């Protein structure tokens, strides 16, 4: 029996629901916190608290107080800035017996900066989308015909599809890119796009499960529709990636197929927005979390645990509360 | 017992669910159609069919065939271009005994063009957001101090928040506005924003119900959070609007408060995206529709049928199907 805390629950109602279904079975509780009383997922846990924002100096003390109040055994977070904040303070949580269901700080830090992600993956021998921060480098690569238009100019940090510019010639590139604005340049390597939900055991560090989906329709950077697929190249790529890095817990990987090759484009060291697809098809990461929190290792990955060709569609549901 | 057809069901799962709950009670069925097999709401009716797109020449014949196949009594549509298409062919539907749960063509046509909406409302003596299609007119109004910055430049047609430019001076205005692009200019009349779900009886033409919500947070033009309110000025404005126009069935009205006054900014002659708020709080438009389709008039509006201060939040749910 464990109690689990979900931080920055936000709009991630499904994740809270799935976790609660699992944790409640053995008598545990899911506690949700958020700084915003209008976060719908708050209201889907067993209990909730409103806490200060991450940048508030009271934030950490509040989380610790919540952990003590509800005898929390494990913490999950659903937004990026908080992952780093929690990982930085791992020692404090260790001392009060709270497990962070989260990768260590050193690998988390590679995830938020696309240039860093590329450099890191390349060093490890993992194919990644070529990423450049210098216009001069890009221009000379174009001249040497080692890079060609269209190119993508986008913020080096940040998620979703905000601020993405696709450029088709040198003038457009020069207009879109300005040094110092923390922009990066990438080739347009996207024939197909995939998302992979991965769980790595917190105790053994072994890969436990993966769920591969092809993303079909995007709406403001979020996947609207996706299809479950089996894909040996992606499976091999993910296995290699996990064996060479220290990521643990739930991870969401974005991957592009381009001219027959696969490239990792993004790593989110947390549950991705498309995770419900995996869960609905039987990849129960919540059970892996529960096992790990009661000190039990999960069986290492052997094969796909889901069927191909299932389409997931998102739609709006609503929740009401009295002010 | 009536069977109802929902056209262009799209992502509007809640509307289909609410309608089905009501229609099934008396033994009727809800049939959904869409041109896209990936439209999640398709799968929440009793039966569904895939039909051609609205601009396909087979479209109308398909709808009629679906009506005959399922002995349809009433048709609802959830997207704008289709409303006009259906209303234009009212006679054909009349002949086969199918009621369009929809306003007549002459009033629908005022809704999609913001300049037309403004002209129409002004003629009727209903306060609307001043709307201009000529830069010259706007410039001279600014010079005469009858209009002031900030101004909003946006497409005269279309919905959501796509292509909206807020300008603060003449140069920015001139850059944002180009004649012939079907843009309009409006003052920035938005201290508060409200959405009103209205039902007007299909038989008597009388106002039956209204639900007023203040919109709190917008995300790509859609309301994420809203609070139910009672507001006598808006109530009076809506009563006046309905009594002076020929709208019937479900209508969604957008309204801005600015310096203490209320202005209608948009009329959607269909269920609005925020309708679930009204339904969840007891304003059961599905029951009004069912009554009308069995030939029964609904009682005219007397007072609010909902409580104030209830917050509605949207969140993503998911649905799976095998390809």
From TrEMBL, chains A, B:
Source taxon at top rank: Bacteria
Give start-end ranges for the coiled-coil region(s). none
Q: Name one Pfam family in it.
A: PylC-like_N
* Gene Ontology MF annotations: ATP binding; D-alanine-D-alanine ligase activity; metal ion binding
- The answer to whether UniProt assigns keyword Endoplasmic reticulum to this entry is no
Q: Which PROSITE patterns match?
A: ATP_GRASP
**What keywords are annotated for this sequence in UniProt?**
ATP-binding, Nucleotide-binding
Please indicate if the UniProt record lists ATP-binding as a keyword.
yes
Question: What is the species listed in this Swiss-Prot or TrEMBL entry?
Answer: Halobacillus litoralis
ATP-grasp domain boundaries = 118-294
Show the InterPro entries listed in the entry: ATP-grasp, ATP-grasp_PylC-type, ATP_grasp_subdomain_1, PylC_N
Q: What is this protein called?
A: Carbamoyl phosphate synthase
């Amino acid at each position: 029996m464990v109690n689990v805390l979900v931080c920055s629950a936000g709009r991630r109602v499904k994740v809270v629901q799935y976790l609660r279904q699992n944790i409640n079975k053995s008598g545990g509780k899911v506690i949700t916190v958020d700084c915003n009383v209008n976060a719908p997922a708050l209201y889907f846990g067993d209990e909730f608290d409103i806490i200060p924002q991450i940048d508030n100096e009271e934030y950490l003390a509040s989380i610790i107080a919540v952990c003590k109040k509800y005898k929390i055994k494990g913490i999950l977070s659903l937004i990026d800035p908080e992952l780093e904040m929690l990982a930085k303070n791992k020692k404090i949580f260790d001392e009060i017996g709270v497990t962070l269901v989260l990768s260590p700080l050193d690998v988390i830090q590679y995830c938020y900066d696309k240039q860093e992600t590329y450099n890191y993956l390349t060093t490890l021998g993992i194919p990644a989308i070529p990423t450049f921060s210098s216009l001069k480098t890009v221009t000379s690569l174009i001249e040497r015909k080692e890079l060609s238009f269209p190119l993508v100019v986008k913020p080096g940090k940040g998620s979703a599809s905000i601020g993405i510019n696709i450029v088709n010639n040198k003038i457009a590139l020069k207009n879109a890119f300005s040094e110092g604005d923390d922009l990066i340049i990438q080739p347009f390597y996207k024939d197909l796009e995939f998302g992979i939900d991965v769980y790595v055991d917190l105790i053994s560090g072994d890969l436990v499960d993966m769920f591969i989906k092809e993303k079909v329709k995007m709406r403001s950077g979020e996947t609207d529709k996706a299809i479950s697929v089996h894909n040996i190249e992606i499976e091999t790529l993910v296995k290699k990636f996990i064996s060479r890095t220290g990521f643990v817990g739930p991870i969401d990987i974005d991957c592009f197929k381009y001219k027959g090759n696969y490239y990792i484009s993004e790593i989110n060291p947390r549950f991705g927005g498309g995770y419900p697809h995996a869960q609905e098809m039987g990849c129960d990461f919540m059970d892996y979390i529960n096992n790990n929190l009661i000190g039990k290792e999960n069986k290492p990955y052997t094969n796909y645990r889901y069927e191909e060709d299932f389409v997931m569609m998102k739609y709006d549901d609503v929740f009401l509360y009295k002010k």
